[in-house]
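Worked example 3 (structure in, sequence out).
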């Protein structure tokens, strides 16, 4: 019996070693909470939050604390210069495309209103 248990333990260790080796080649495999789909994770996290509130140990941010946390997050993101440059480029592109769209609408409206007025004048004259 003991020899079987030793073999089983050896198999388990070998298989986990193989799994970790293959996992490192492909990336680490997800286990436990990380392996669950998003809906399951939300459900479990929600239950934990509800329990903490019922127990009275849940942390609730006041507005000042939330402001400081947001500021820290913004500072952390802004340290990544490449990321900030990408955000700026996207904003500039978006603004340019919005301006072009407005210019096109303005010229189309001016043309169509001129055309309609000319049509009315001809009808009024006739």
């Amino acid at each position: 019996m003991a020899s079987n248990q030793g073999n089983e333990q050896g198999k388990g260790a070998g298989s986990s070693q193989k799994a970790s080796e293959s996992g490192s080649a492909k990336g680490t495999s997800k286990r436990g909470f990380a392996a669950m789909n998003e809906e399951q994770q939300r459900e479990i996290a929600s239950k934990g939050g509800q329990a903490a509130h019922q127990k009275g140990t849940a942390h609730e941010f006041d507005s000042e604390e939330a402001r400081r946390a947001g500021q820290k997050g913004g500072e952390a993101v802004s340290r990544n210069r490449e990321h900030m440059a990408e955000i700026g480029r996207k904003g500039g592109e978006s603004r340019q495309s919005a301006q072009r769209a407005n210019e096109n609408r303005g010229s189309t409206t001016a043309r169509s209103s001129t055309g309609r007025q000319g049509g009315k004048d001809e009808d009024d004259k006739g």
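Notes: The longest helix spans residues 81-125. The chain is about 85% helix and 0% strand.
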